[in-house]
Task: inverse folding
């Protein structure tokens, strides 16, 4: 049974494998379900499935690193419409991919087609999203991420609802607010 | 069922090997029942069992050289797939959409031990010209916890053997001992802490009764270390930090008022080497953090970007050699130090060779830590005009300057916030291991021929947060990146040959008496002539080669094995420099070749 379910998961993963590095959904192995009553559940699923978490992280704060700086969605001042446009068309000249099928071809983005965009052409997302999915993820970002301040333990366990220790660090921070900075490098 | 037949076979093999061994005085002195037990004696004398591959880097000196020559220059064109095995471990977790394979298989008496990216260990019976899984140990790595702070992929580079145990690491910071016969976990110990941004990707190095562990996390504000665990008592013997504590020697090379040293990086994620003659472990250290804002951490930032020699018994630092002081490029020196003895003007020279991410290959006197020679092994270096012939330091290096600028026009800094560097920040050579042919005195480097673009972001103490990137900027990939295999004649310190390849070498090297094996992330495994580097054989695996080849024998027949499954940093962060590789699908497969 165990072997069977792993096999199925493997086949699924391969069959939807990424066209474009990490843009593949990273949902496998992590639960991303909000309470059933939450109207932004569908958007939360898209947030994982479209691998927004790969750069913006589960908390949306993004951060620097090897992929450059994914902008903080917690600090964003974008409106719902602007978020929808950014997800659909990507951000020219940055690593933010576009997720609308046909963007810069049949669908003009920022008034540009592929030729106009040239070297500024953003990468293509690992999965395309339907307009309804893009609206859903924008609603999720606005309801749960935009303006949310620093990530909390409660938010983290709501996001993961799993047995992973991924949230422990936030619990520790809340217990010892004065030691909130990173590793002090003390020997174990 | 499989398990018991595997066990029976082990017993049978034990007897056969013991008999054969005694006849050839290979295993002389060892009790018959200990033939499958790995001890220091066997680890020191791997040349006496050429059909096995007992060390991650083949021997303590990291030669990755096998004397096996059934497969040779004359017949390698007939090499073909003997068998394959699908493995698992491509699941995503944290910021990663899938895992990959970077491991080197270990071979002992006809059995292979391999890992996948999440640290599952597979024991495979390779007898009879096919592979059969004997057992799989799944450590159930906490994927979201570890995957969120693994800068560069869901990676595990393999196991080590000790006694009747298989010793392995997990990305979430554990050292695990698995019973070799049963596949049951005998014990495990937490060595690294992902809550601090620490993860483990390297294979353990076994020295005497200890497992030596290195750590990754210099992009997450760790303070690096190398740790030794006593395999008999499961207790820590020593832990040496690669960044000195306040007041310790070298602490004055962190001249800032930010306490940058406490989160200063210096990770140790590539398995090191061991010189039994002096009981010295030689291990490379990674970049300082934040990677690209070196004005945050004025001073040389010891012992980042260094080769470190440690007393194996105590962990005390004997000497260090730093390659890129106050590094503003992310030019780790984590690479393996290859231990080589060559004739010198006044007796044999005992060298430690290292191919650095900064694009230069170094030979250091491993007795004193003094520079012998260095040369660029990549086609293009822009960050320095060269090395000082005496000291080996970049010629622009000024020990009186708190913040180094090297060739200032290309160096990332607070006044040069966006700039192109060559090599790119993945370096001229990353973790994929070199190989050394002691007969030809040729050293083969798997090269990334590259430039990339660095954008600096000024770091401030408030930006330092647990489990978040601490890089002071980030790279982008406006340039096409290719690769090469570059051979260096160690007697002269000169380049002896270069075979250019369309893609960067992300797998590493294997040397045999007259061949060199390697692979490409576009799928090809290839054999080259050891002297001319002419390509003699190639097979397309249909996956992305991201791991080094190795070779072994079963029942007297030679096989070449390699794990195939593109993952790691390239697939996520650097793919725009090799757009064709976007076609390569995630995968997880062991290929075994024979004549």
Result:
């Amino acid at each position: 049974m165990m072997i069977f379910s792993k096999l199925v998961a493997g086949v699924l993963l391969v069959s939807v494998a990424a066209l474009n590095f990490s843009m593949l959904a990273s949902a496998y192995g992590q639960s991303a379900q909000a309470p059933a009553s939450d109207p932004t559940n569908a958007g939360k699923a898209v947030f994982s499935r479209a691998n927004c978490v790969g750069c913006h992280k589960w908390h949306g704060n993004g951060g620097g690193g090897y992929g450059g700086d994914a902008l903080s969605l917690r600090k964003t001042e974008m409106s719902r419409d602007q978020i929808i446009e950014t997800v659909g068309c990507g951000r020219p000249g940055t690593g933010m991919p576009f997720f609308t099928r046909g963007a810069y071809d049949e669908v003009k983005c920022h008034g540009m087609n592929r030729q106009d965009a040239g070297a500024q052409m953003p990468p293509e997302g690992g999965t395309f999203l339907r307009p309804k999915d893009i609206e859903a993820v924008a609603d999720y970002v606005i309801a749960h991420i935009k303006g949310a301040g620093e990530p909390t333990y409660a938010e983290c366990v709501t996001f993961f609802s799993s047995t992973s220790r991924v949230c422990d660090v936030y619990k520790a921070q809340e217990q010892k607010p004065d030691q909130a900075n990173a590793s002090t490098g003390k020997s174990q | 069922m499989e398990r018991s037949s595997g066990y029976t076979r082990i017993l049978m093999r034990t007897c056969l090997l013991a008999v054969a061994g005694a006849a050839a005085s290979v295993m002389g002195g060892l009790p018959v029942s200990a033939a499958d037990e790995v001890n220091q004696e066997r680890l020191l004398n791997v040349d006496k069992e050429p059909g096995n591959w007992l060390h991650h880097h083949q021997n303590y000196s990291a030669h990755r050289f096998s004397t096996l020559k059934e497969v040779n220059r004359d017949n390698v064109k007939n090499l073909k797939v003997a068998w394959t095995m699908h493995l698992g471990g491509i699941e995503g977790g944290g910021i990663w959409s899938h895992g990959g394979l970077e491991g080197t298989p270990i071979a002992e008496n006809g059995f292979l031990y391999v890992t996948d990216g999440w640290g599952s260990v597979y024991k495979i019976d390779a007898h009879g010209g096919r592979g059969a899984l004997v057992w799989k140990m799944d450590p159930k790595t906490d994927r979201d916890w570890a995957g969120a702070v693994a800068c560069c992929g869901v990676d595990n580079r393999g196991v080590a053997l000790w006694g009747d145990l298989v010793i392995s690491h997990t990305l979430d910071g554990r050292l695990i001992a698995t019973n070799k016969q049963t596949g049951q976990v005998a014990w495990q110990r937490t060595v690294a802490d992902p809550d601090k941004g620490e993860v483990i990707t390297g294979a353990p190095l076994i020295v005497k009764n200890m497992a030596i562990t290195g750590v990754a996390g210099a992009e997450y504000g760790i303070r690096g270390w190398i740790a030794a665990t006593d395999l008999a008592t499961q207790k820590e013997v020593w832990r040496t930090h690669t960044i000195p504590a306040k007041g310790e020697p070298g602490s004055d090379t962190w001249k800032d008022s930010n306490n940058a040293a406490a989160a200063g990086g210096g990770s140790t994620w590539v398995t090191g080497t061991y010189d039994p003659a002096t009981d010295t472990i030689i291990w490379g250290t990674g970049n300082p953090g934040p990677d690209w804002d070196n004005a945050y951490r004025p001073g040389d930032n010891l012992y980042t970007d260094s080769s470190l020699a440690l007393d194996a018994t105590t962990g005390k630092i004997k000497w260090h050699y730093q390659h890129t002081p106050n590094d503003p490029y992310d030019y780790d020196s984590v690479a393996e130090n290859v231990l080589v003895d060559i004739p010198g003007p006044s007796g044999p020279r005992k060298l430690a060779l290292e191919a650095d991410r900064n694009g230069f290959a170094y030979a250091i006197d491993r007795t004193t830590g003094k520079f012998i020679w260095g040369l660029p092994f990549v086609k293009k270096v822009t960050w320095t005009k060269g090395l000082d012939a005496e000291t080996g330091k970049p010629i622009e290096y000024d020990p009186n300057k708190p913040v180094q600028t090297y060739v200032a026009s290309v160096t990332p800094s607070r006044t040069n916030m966006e700039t192109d560097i060559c090599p790119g920040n993945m370096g001229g050579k990353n973790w994929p291991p070199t190989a050394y042919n002691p007969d030809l005195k040729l050293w083969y480097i798997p090269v990334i021929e590259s430039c990339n673009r660095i954008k600096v972001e000024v770091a401030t103490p408030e930006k330092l947060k647990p489990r978040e990137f601490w890089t002071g900027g980030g790279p982008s990939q406006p340039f096409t990146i290719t690769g090469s295999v570059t051979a260096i004649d160690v007697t002269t310190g000169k380049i002896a040959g270069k075979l250019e390849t369309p893609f960067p070498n992300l797998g590493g090297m294997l040397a045999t008496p007259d061949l060199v094996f390697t692979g490409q992330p576009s799928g090809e495994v290839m054999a080259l002539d050891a002297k001319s580097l002419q390509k003699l054989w190639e097979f397309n695996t249909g996956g992305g080669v991201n791991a080094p080849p190795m070779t072994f024998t079963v029942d007297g027949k030679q096989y070449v094995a390699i794990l195939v499954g593109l993952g790691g940093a390239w697939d996520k962060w650097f793919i725009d420099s090799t757009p064709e590789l976007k076609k390569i699908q995630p995968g997880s497969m062991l290929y075994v070749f024979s004549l």
Summary: Chain B has a mean pLDDT of 94. Residues 2-23 of chain B form the longest helix (22 residues). Chain B touches chain A through 65 residues (CB under 8 Å).
